[in-house]
Amino acid sequence: MDYVPKSIGDPIRNEDAKELSKSETKYIGIDLGTTYSCVAVLENDQLVSIPCDNGQTTIPSIVGYCEDAILVGSIAASVGIQSENMLHDSKRLIGWEFLYDLPNANPELWSFKVDTKDNSAGYILNKRQENEKFVKPEEVSAEILKILKTTAETYLKKEVAAVITVPAQFSDKQRDATKRAADLAGLKLIHILEEPIASALAYNQKMELEENSKLLIVDFGGGTLDITIIETIDRFLKVKALTGDQHLGGQDIDDRIMKYVISEHLKKSPGHNFRDPRTLRLLRTACRKRKEALANTNSVNIMISPNNQDDTPINVRLTQEKLNELCNDIFAKITDIVDRAINMADLKKEDINYVVILFSKFKK
């Protein structure tokens, strides 16, 4: 059932979403994220997040390829899988034909190997080994979708069909690749829904916005930024502006922190091997977690033990002030895109009644 607009100005009704919840088929919503993914269902007109990983409502968007099994989420991150076969960022690679035109890519910070094959960017497992294998991003996304599908069906005790959210700036190729991921997962897909539109529906479901209200949604995910302005008219939500940057997200901040930690540590230990995949994986995890901790403190220490006995332990202090300095241009770009959306909607800042800010486990 296509109840979401493809273009600015088309109306959206919350009643359409409610009708889905009354169907005999159990419909679920899936946020297939760059860093984390989750699944939810509408029950008694309330959006309910389904626990899916050790009681958590999100799972890390990580897939580990072992010799005899494929692991997804926290378990993939916790076991001793060869780091080069621990894959993430499938949402950033999906639908791209070439690596050289991938914006904001920092392959030197990736613990996995990438290449292109058959007009698709993808991953290389077991590079230069007899069992070398090319894996497309949609195949990685499919493994995440399989887990979310199984989790939802176990929780609901029924077969499910899904709405999957994607960034508003996703191209047709990226949307088609996401659809292929659903097919590979054996998941019935009823619609691809823009992430900020999903946020607007959920917010209006909860708050019952007043007539002629104007809502600014800033959706800063792990790998993408969507800015949307929506107006309420006759119980409809009308999209006034839709813009963003599909290659600007929390992981770009992680990359800045990683580069800073590497630079600071090399001043003390010039010979440290930062090309080691395990070291890069551990460093990325540590940088992301300490970044999140900075929301509640003025400074943190980023520490990891060396993988090589010849390397020294990493211990670099990061302050909120330094983080702002490292990422000042990123924050300025977000502000510029917000201003662009307001101009696109032919509005002034004071015309906005509500602001919804969605971050992927990151707060400035």
Automatic annotation (TrEMBL):
Keyword Kinase: no
Keywords carried by this UniProt record: ATP-binding, Nucleotide-binding
InterPro entries cross-referenced by the UniProt entry: ATPase_NBD, Heat_shock_70_CS, Hsp_70_fam
Single GO biological process annotation from the record: response to stress
GO molecular function: ATP binding; ATP-dependent protein folding chaperone
Top-rank lineage group of the source organism: Eukaryota
Coiled-coil annotated residue ranges, if any: none
Family: Belongs to the heat shock protein 70 family.
Protein name: Uncharacterized protein
Source species: Diploscapter pachys
